[in-house]
């Protein structure tokens, strides 16, 4: 195997890991109408990441990752406090909190100026191509390994908590009656989103995480009514976007994460158009109501 | 580090550079705050966020086509792609099952991602004049040029002028779009105008705070101002004042510390104003509401203490007998400290007298105690007569209502019940 092929493989694999993690969590966010909380969290982890860099010089240690992820949780808590305690309407509460945290993050990053690992552009869109310059762990680049571990964690929690997530997503009242704590499951989900935003940060930046939290889930939602199918489709869409994005970026010599997002957008448009055609030709199979 | 002399020097605006930055950020901040009030009230705060992210591809494309980074070239591009994003959100909402939040998130990230792709493409194609483009990401207030001030000033004037002109229409649209429609206003066209103005404010604002933080310039001043007033006119002015203050302070910080970015500091100051308002604003602020709650709890406790002493007198058939703290405590469990405090304040208000035999009701205290007992019993009677509740189910409800019923309601209750003498538990209803 030549190195060029290997490099491409690592980049696509890393991108796919980010995309699949986002896709799985995104399905639940979408169904719970929390897509924009994902947006807020992905912005708000920035100060956590900056502090982690200040203290440890990198994001490759577990305490640094967890510390940064705590800020994401803090953000959801702050949004709820501003909304319910101070009585600010929901969308504005979110807007105030995440822009504030992001501003603090940018200020911290600026005060770190000279730290080569964390500059302002990296904050926004990361650099997936740098993954190949990482040190290796177990034969794979460190970022890839961290993302893989995070994906395994997400898959494990989602699998073992399937019933809890399923019930609290679709019928919170019934779930409460059965003794599931909706608050606890909510915060478990938020913790996973925060952690995933943090570990995806170096590859795709703080903002493009949103693309993977919203995009694949939204497309999959158009295609199916069944949750397991939606999760599977979202993951496949995520993988296809990262492979397609790699080639698009290679062709243009541009940012890979941005290209992945563009592919997601094209996929979404494609699905929307196919649905339009089906409507026009009236061969729509049963349009079942959402479960 | 921070000296008064430097602040004064800064505020004197004697350096042209400071002048550009301060005037530029103030104009942009005020324009965004004014239009942001309507975005806020129409609960479309995050649409503003989406527009802000979505202008990036437009800026990049305009640069690629024209090869210049003059604002006159870039702003139309930004304007077009901001508008396209708005239309896309609308289109997705109308034509798919996706909820608005997902539509916003999707459009925001796809447009932004496209912008990043184009931006990195431009950067790697190595055109020397592109270096300034990335300033749109985080804003670069320090790079504001005299020519930019003209752009900001003109758009700001246009924006504020149109808002002033259509103030009544926009107000109606924000608070009651259905009524606006029914009243014959051209709602679609007004919405279009409002959206256009929002895009315009965003497009000029990204120069100072960047695409990510632009949402804050729209939302935060309005949200902060909302805590201080219920009048839209005052809210708009107050929001604009907050934005101007934040712009000045943010500029000052980055003047003091040249490696500090202006935009994020403006947002931090704005957020601080918003958080301060949430806590300290009169009436709507957290402290004011806490105070109201405490005062209400205090009033209820006093009334309960008074009522307990009244009940004791009633059961003895003698309202002149005194009662010690322990006796009050024996009839009803109060927190001992709160009880002491309530007894003290009741005495100060002249409702209780303290003698050798303990606390006893004064003439006024007797009237007040009788009033409370009367309302309680009237309400119990009302519940049994009108709602057909069993007499043993009505006490708890009456316990809450006795603190709330106004003299007018009391008169109505009495009239409705035919000036009764006995309650469902066969106790006297005192006059």
Structure commentary:
The complex is a heterodimer of chains A (291) and B (431). With 291 residues, chain A is mostly helical. Chain A has helices at residues 3-31, 35-56, 62-85, 90-111, 120-125, 142-160, 162-170, 172-177, 182-223, 227-252, 256-281, and strands spanning 136-137, 140-141. Chain A has a single domain (3-281), classed as ABC transporter involved in vitamin B12 uptake, BtuC (Orthogonal Bundle). In chain A, strands 1-2 form a two-stranded antiparallel sheet. Chain B has three domains: 4-281, ABC transporter involved in vitamin B12 uptake, BtuC (Orthogonal Bundle); 288-361, Winged helix-like DNA-binding domain superfamily/Winged helix DNA-binding domain (Arc Repressor Mutant, subunit A), CATH 1.10.10.10; 366-417, Diphtheria Toxin Repressor, domain 2, CATH 1.10.60.10. Chain B is built from 18 helices and two strands. In chain B, helix 3 packs across helix 4 (71-95) and helix 10 (187-226) packs across helix 12 (262-280). Chain B starts with a helix and ends in a 14-residue tail after the last helix. The relative contact order of chain B is 0.09. The model of chain B has no long low-confidence stretch (mean pLDDT 86). The interface between A and B is large, with 63 and 62 residues.
């Amino acid at each position: 195997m030549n190195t060029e092929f290997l490099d491409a493989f690592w980049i696509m694999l890393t991108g796919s890991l980010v995309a699949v993690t986002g896709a799985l969590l995104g399905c639940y966010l979408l169904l719970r109408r929390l897509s924009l909380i994902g947006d807020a969290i992905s912005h708000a982890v920035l100060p956590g990441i900056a502090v982690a860099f200040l203290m440890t010089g990198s994001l490759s240690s577990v305490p640094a990752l967890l510390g940064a992820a705590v800020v994401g949780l803090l953000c959801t808590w702050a949004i709820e406090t501003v909304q319910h305690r101070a009585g600010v309407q929901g969308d504005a509460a979110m807007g105030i909190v995440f822009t504030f945290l992001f501003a603090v993050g940018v200020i911290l990053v600026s005060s770190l100026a000279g730290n080569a690992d964390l500059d302002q552009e990296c904050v926004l869109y990361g650099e997936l191509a740098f993954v190949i310059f990482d040190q290796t762990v177990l034969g794979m680049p460190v970022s890839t390994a961290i993302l893989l571990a995070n994906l395994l964690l997400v898959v494990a929690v989602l699998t073992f908590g399937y019933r809890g997530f399923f019930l609290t997503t679709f019928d919170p009242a019934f779930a409460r009656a059965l003794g599931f704590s909706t608050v606890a499951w909510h915060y478990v989900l938020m913790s996973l989103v925060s952690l995933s935003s943090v570990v995806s940060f170096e590859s795709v930046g703080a903002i493009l995480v949103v693309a993977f939290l919203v995009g694949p889930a939204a497309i999959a939602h158009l295609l199916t009514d069944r949750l397991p199918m939606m999760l599977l489709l979202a993951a496949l869409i995520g993988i296809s976007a990262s492979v397609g994005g790699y080639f698009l970026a290679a062709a243009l010599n541009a940012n890979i994460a941005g290209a992945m997002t563009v592919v997601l957008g094209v996929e979404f448009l494609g699905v929307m158009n196919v649905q339009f055609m089906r409507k026009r030709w009236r061969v729509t199979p049963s349009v079942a109501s959402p479960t | 580090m921070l000296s008064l002399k430097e602040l004064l020097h800064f505020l004197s605006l004697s350096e042209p550079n400071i002048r550009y930055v301060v005037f530029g950020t103030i104009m942009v901040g005020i324009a965004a705050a004014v239009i942001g009030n309507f975005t806020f009230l129409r609960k479309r705060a995050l649409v503003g966020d989406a527009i802000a992210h979505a202008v990036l591809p437009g800026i990049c494309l305009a640069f690629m086509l024209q090869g210049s980074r003059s604002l006159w070239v870039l702003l139309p591009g930004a304007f077009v792609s901001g508008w396209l994003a708005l239309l896309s959100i609308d289109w997705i909402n109308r034509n798919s099952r996706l909820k608005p939040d997902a539509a916003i998130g999707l459009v925001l990230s796809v447009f932004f991602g496209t912008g990043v792709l184009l931006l990195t493409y431009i950067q790697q194609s190595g055109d020397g004049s592109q270096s300034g483009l990335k300033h749109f990401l985080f804003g670069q207030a320090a790079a504001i040029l005299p020519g930019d001030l003209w752009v900001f000033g003109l758009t700001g004037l246009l924006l504020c002028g149109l808002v002033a002109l259509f103030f009544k229409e926009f107000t109606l649209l924000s608070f009651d779009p259905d009524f606006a429609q029914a009243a014959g206003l051209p709602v679609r066209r007004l919405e279009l105008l409002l959206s256009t103005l929002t895009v315009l404010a965003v497009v000029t604002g990204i120069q100072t705070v960047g695409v990510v933080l632009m949402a804050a310039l729209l939302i935060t001043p309005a949200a902060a101002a909302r805590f201080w007033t219920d009048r839209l006119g005052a809210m708009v002015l107050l929001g604009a004042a907050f934005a101007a203050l934040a712009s000045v302070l943010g500029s000052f910080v980055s003047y003091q510390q040249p490696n500090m970015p202006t935009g994020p500091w403006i947002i931090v100051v704005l957020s601080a104003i918003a958080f301060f308002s949430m806590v300290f604003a009169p009436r709507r602020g957290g402290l004011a509401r806490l105070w109201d709650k405490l005062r209400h709890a205090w009033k209820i406790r006093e009334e309960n203490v008074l009522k307990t002493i009244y009940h004791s007198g009633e059961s003895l058939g003698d309202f002149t007998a005194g009662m010690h703290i322990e006796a009050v405590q024996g009839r009803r469990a109060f927190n001992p400290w709160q009880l002491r405090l309530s007894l003290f304040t009741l005495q100060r208000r002249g409702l209780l007298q303290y003698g050798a035999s303990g606390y006893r009701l004064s003439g006024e205290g007797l009237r007040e105690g009788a009033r409370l007992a009367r309302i309680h019993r009237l309400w119990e009677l009302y519940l049994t007569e009108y709602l057909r509740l069993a007499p043993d189910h009505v006490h708890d409800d009456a316990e809450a209502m006795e603190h709330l019923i106004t003299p007018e309601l009391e008169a109505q209750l009495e009239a409705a019940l035919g000036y009764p003498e006995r309650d469902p538990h066969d106790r006297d209803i005192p006059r």
